[in-house]
Amino acid sequence: MNPAILSEYFQYPFVRYALIVGVLISLCSALLGVLLVLKRYSYIGDGLSHVAFGAMAVSAVLKMTSQKMLIILPITVAAAILLLKRGRDAKIQGDAKLAMLSVSSLAIGYLLMNRFSASANVSADVCSTLFGSTSILTLTTGEVWLCIFLSVAVSAIYILLYPRIFAVTFDEDFARASGMNTDFYNLLIATVTAVIIVLAMNLVGSLLISALVIFPAITAMLVCHDFRSVSIFSAVVSVACAIAGMLTAIVFGTPVGSTIVACDLAVFCIVYVFSALKVGRG
Amino acid sequence: MSLITCRDLVLGYEDGPIVRNLNFTVSKGDYLCIIGENGSGKTTLMKTLLGLLKPYGGEVLFGDGLKQEMIGYLPQQTLVQKDFPASVWEVVLSGRQNHLGKHFFYRKNDHETAEKQMERLQITSLKKRSYRHLSGGQQQRVLLARALCATDQLLVLDEPVTGLDSQITRIMYDTIESLHKDGMTVIMISHDIDAALKYATHILSLEDTHFFGTKEEYMKKKGEQA
Fold this sequence. Notes:
The complex is a heterodimer.
Chain A: H1 3-10, H2 13-38, H3 42-61, H4 68-86, H5 91-116, H6 122-131, H7 141-160, H8 162-170, H9 172-177, H10 182-204, H11 209-223, H12 227-252, H13 256-281
Helix pairs in contact in A: 2-7, 2-10, 2-11, 2-12, 3-4, 3-5, 3-10, 3-11, 4-10, 7-10, 11-12, 11-13, 12-13
Chain B: E1 4-13, E2 16-26, E3 31-35, H1 42-49, E4 57-62, E5 72-74, H2 79-82, H3 88-93, H4 108-120, H5 136-150, E6 154-158, H6 166-181, E7 185-190, H7 193-199, E8 202-205, E9 211-214, H8 215-225
Parallel strand pairs in B: 3-7, 3-8, 5-6, 6-7
Antiparallel strand pairs in B: 1-2, 1-4, 8-9
């Protein structure tokens, strides 16, 4: 990579915004990903991202694209709470319900955008929403501040409630028997998940969000053996991949979201091979 | 005053009661074994004592300064835990969660208690090991240490020897017995009647006809039936 080209790009405020937001979102999604993977909730992230897509389409139809967060955030949070409540029921049924919710949101979302969108190029809009190709570079200052505020809030919650989050993730029954209001913490985790997914939609688009949530956590669990180092390693991997992916995308003109996910995948493969060799030798 | 008094307790879920008219008390220093077939309501009873389920009817009263959330609970292992990336230290310390109160983080005396309980169960050398790399017996000791972090009064053990081989089983029972001798009140769910008769002071049987009484009374009754 040519440093001169990069420094030229950094002159543009939208590039700096994109990097700041990218780092924050990847940090939060990695922390949350550890919880979701360990609680066996990985699929919820995927389902919610499709709901967020549907909500985005609704906002486009209502011509509220400038205040789209006002529509997308509440709808996604509501879906998260609903899904988690159902999670207690029979497992298979819950899976099927989630799949139905997820494909319905995609279908209805596309239908709405196709029929009612005011935009001249619907396909480009849909592609951008699904794969996030340009939205990270077209953030308004307001959206940047919203991202910063929400990311700081999520990190603060994770750090301050760390002992309780560990307890409810490791053993929910024990935590509940010790007087902990586990329903509240599950609700909190669901809400935060929804918030992160809506934010991450700007970065990688709604189809690729799961990668951002799952890859760093799984990678960290290959090499780390306690909860704290899994959390830290996962955050480091995620932020590093986001930065590397974004810089590559800027310099080579590749789509941002796919490039970041490709970086996550590459790091996972390298770590996987490395840990397999280590086990083989040890 | 008893630690726990169950009065006319009815256990069950939405679709109806499983166990009716359960009356028993647990006093300080007791070692109560709850025995019965699978499906007889042992686990439901335990979950009700721990506050994980609401009683279908009747009541559970706590006395002698015992609070429900100050019970040390040794659950059966779940699949999620078996490969959970946590160090032994993190797991044991999480037992102090009911002492956090309004604080965000564990304090010095939480750390000291966790150290002490690890010492007591001879798992101090495993402190930095990953929980998922331990043997079944070691994992069980770690969870027992966590339960001891939560309580200094009452342990509730759910089938504590499930899946352990006979030697480790004996060591586990001996450990529990020594905790009992140190003054800990113990409630153990078990379908191992031999062990129940060997270690327990009291028996609660959830067979067709409920029985609650001391071990001697239980043996006498069984003798009469035979």
